[in-house]
Amino acid sequence: MRRTGTAALCIAALLAVGGPAAPDVPGREQSQCAVTRGTPTGQARQVIDIVHRARRDLGLKAALVRVTVDGRDVATVADGTSMSGVPATPAMHFRSGSVGIAYLGTVLLQLVDEHRVALDDPVSRWLPDLPHGDGITLRMLGDSTSGLHDYVTDPAFVKQLYADPFQHWTPDELVGISLGHPLRYEPGTDWSYSHANFVLLGRALEKITATPLDKLLRERVLNPLGLGETRNAFTPEIPAPVLHAYDDERGPYEDATYWDPSWTTAPGAVLTTDICDLARSAQGIGSGRLLSRDSYRVQLNPGTPGLGTPTATCPATVCLKQTEDFHYGVGVIYKFGWVLQNPSFAGFAAVQAYLPERRLAIAVSTTVGRRAPESNTAQTVSERIAAALTPDHPMTAKPE
Q: Global pTM?
């Protein structure tokens, strides 16, 4: 799968037919999420120029970007159109995919802080009917070392997803596809990304707390971080105003905005957001604001560096090498000092990235035009911004 699938560390998300609850309202700006006004200079000018160039260079339909330091606005940019004749605005909502996985990992570690669970507890304690549940721990779900096959790579799943992108998927269907394959390795001994890990983690968190996942995330993450424009939906609905997305994976370039996102992660964590909330999320998650120091350290490094060894049952394209500089944490990606998530699916792409050393947050959402590359274009934009603002801390490896 191209933009739809999750390519391990470079995703990651790593969607009842429906439509918007109300008509799109172009130009309806929220005062707290508006474009940078006046005559920008310095870093603001750099960011704005990068976004404008990137939209042309990458063939983007739209690009929304917000950069903050210590929560203070450096630049907020909206370039391009949502639909023909409808300019993109910072107030528009879009799917944030695997950003919800960072919230799942955060809630898990909060429960560790509260001594309600231990990371090495077997998931069979809460999911007794799960095959291999005695050998898979909460840690292994959170840092993707369970060995579970990723249903997104299953050919039959891919075929059905393309045949009917409006199909609603249940957790049992999704996890069942993964369980239809042997484990890729003994749990905890290697690393490979699997969407099934987070579907199961969401279910386990509900069992542990006796709380529906959408309510749990609202109480423990969204409200504490002030993410008032971020919300779960159990249908493909996106609150107005909407940033429309387009995709050519099925052949024709078509509007993919309301393709069903139920396959992407656990029900209750299928989120939409706006660019200002995404920047607040980047700072809140990336700084460990909701966790103890010990749990924050574990979130950034749960022991994955050194894993990712290809085997006969886990090729190099799946068991990706985890290094000290670039590895998967507990629901987040640690990449050269940056803490990030980077969903890309069905024409939507986004990045939330935070550099703790500089207290710098970068939030990017992009939609693709007909000639856009197949990579996560939001990742490309965020890397260009990081290279300009923090040349000593790029998001890509420094040249030898």
A: 0.92
- Give the separation between CA 199 and CA 164, rounded to whole angstroms: 21
Summarised one tens digit per residue, pLDDT across range 20-64 is 333 333 333 344 689 988 888 999 999 999 999 999 999 999 999
Q: Could you tell me which of 281, 348, 108 has the C-alpha nearest to residue 209?
A: 108
Quick: pLDDT tens for 235-263.
Answer: 999 999 999 999 999 999 999 999 999 99
Closest CA to 304 of 178, 193, 166, 156: 193
112: three-class secondary structure by DSSP: helix
Residue ranges and CATH numbers for the domains of the chain are 8-278+287-367+376-389 (3.40.710.10)
For residues 45 and 378, the answer to whether their CB atoms sit within 8 Å is no
Measured in Å, how far apart are the chain's first and last C-alpha atoms?
A: 32
Tokens of 67: 């950069």
Distance CA 130, CA 132 (A): 6
Burial class (CB in 10 A: 0-12, 13-18, 19+), 288: buried
Distance, CA of 94 to CA of 258 (rounded, Å)? 11
Helix (H, G, I), strand (E, B) or coil at 387: helix
One-letter amino acid for residue 364 of the chain: V
pLDDT digits (tens, 9 = 90+) for 172-230: 999 999 999 999 999 999 999 999 999 999 999 999 999 999 999 999 999 999 999 99
Rounded alpha-carbon distances, angstroms, from residue 320 to 131, 238, 243, 382: 25, 34, 33, 22
